[in-house]
């Protein structure tokens, strides 16, 4: 994974569209949150706990997570997998939309981050069956199912002209181009949070 110096990280954060990072003092963003965000108490507590962590800026924006959860509810998702979980805010958000017999698997490589979220995950259950919804952090190549929500596709703008050696930005740019060329899917890329792509198999 590419290493960034402090100035690069600060610059990226300031250009982020996430409500809890670059836009937390934006009155329009605060209006949006005050008039649309409906957080379950466990989600709110997990978000607040995550905000204490040094890497809280990588958490999915709460408004972005709610949007994905609403879409998952709209298409009546019963089984989901999340790859790249961090503390599990988005995984819990999706789990709360699933029916009583719904299943969710949350996958991450870091026990440290997952352990932050574990106390809040009582509603999350796992299965090894087929899935019809996959939220994917754009650093990860998609395991294509019926529907994919890919977050962080704008990567604080660094995907526009990825620098040589910036593996994350280059990988995300390749994923964006791959999805755009794939004629099997319907596609929308939105500027929600740090970029959100919706891809549905036709």
UniProtKB/TrEMBL annotation:
<dbReference type="Pfam" id="PF01596">
    <property type="entry name" value="Methyltransf_3"/>
</dbReference>
<comment type="similarity">
    <text>Belongs to the class I-like SAM-binding methyltransferase superfamily. Cation-dependent O-methyltransferase family.</text>
</comment>
<dbReference type="InterPro" id="IPR050362">
    <property type="entry name" value="Cation-dep_OMT"/>
</dbReference>
<dbReference type="InterPro" id="IPR002935">
    <property type="entry name" value="SAM_O-MeTrfase"/>
</dbReference>
<keyword id="KW-0949">S-adenosyl-L-methionine</keyword>
<keyword id="KW-0808">Transferase</keyword>
<dbReference type="GO" id="GO:0008757">
    <property type="term" value="F:S-adenosylmethionine-dependent methyltransferase activity"/>
</dbReference>
<protein>
    <submittedName>
        <fullName>Catechol O-methyltransferase domain-containing protein 1-like</fullName>
    </submittedName>
</protein>
<keyword id="KW-0489">Methyltransferase</keyword>
<dbReference type="GO" id="GO:0032259">
    <property type="term" value="P:methylation"/>
</dbReference>
<dbReference type="InterPro" id="IPR029063">
    <property type="entry name" value="SAM-dependent_MTases_sf"/>
</dbReference>
<dbReference type="GO" id="GO:0008171">
    <property type="term" value="F:O-methyltransferase activity"/>
</dbReference>
């Amino acid at each position: 994974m590419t290493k960034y110096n402090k100035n690069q990280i600060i610059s990226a954060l300031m250009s982020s569209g996430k409500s809890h990072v670059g836009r937390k003092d934006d009155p329009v963003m605060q209006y949006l949150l005050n008039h649309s965000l409906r957080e379950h108490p466990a989600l709110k507590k997990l978000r607040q706990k995550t905000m204490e962590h040094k890497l809280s800026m990588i958490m999915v924006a709460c408004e972005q997570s709610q949007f994905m959860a609403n879409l998952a509810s709209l298409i009546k998702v019963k089984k989901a997998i999340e790859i790249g979980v961090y503390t599990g805010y988005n995984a819990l958000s999706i789990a709360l939309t699933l029916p009583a017999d719904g299943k969710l698997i949350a996958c991450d490589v870091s026990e440290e981050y997952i352990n932050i979220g574990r106390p809040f995950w009582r509603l999350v259950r796992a299965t090894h069956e087929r899935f019809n919804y996959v939220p994917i952090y754009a650093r990860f190549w998609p395991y294509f199912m019926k529907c994919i929500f890919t977050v962080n596709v704008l990567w604080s703008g660094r995907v526009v002209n990825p620098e040589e050696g910036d593996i994350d930005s280059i990988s995300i740019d390749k994923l964006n181009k791959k999805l755009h060329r794939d004629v099997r899917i319907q596609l929308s890329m939105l500027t929600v949070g740090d970029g959100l792509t919706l891809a549905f198999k036709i």
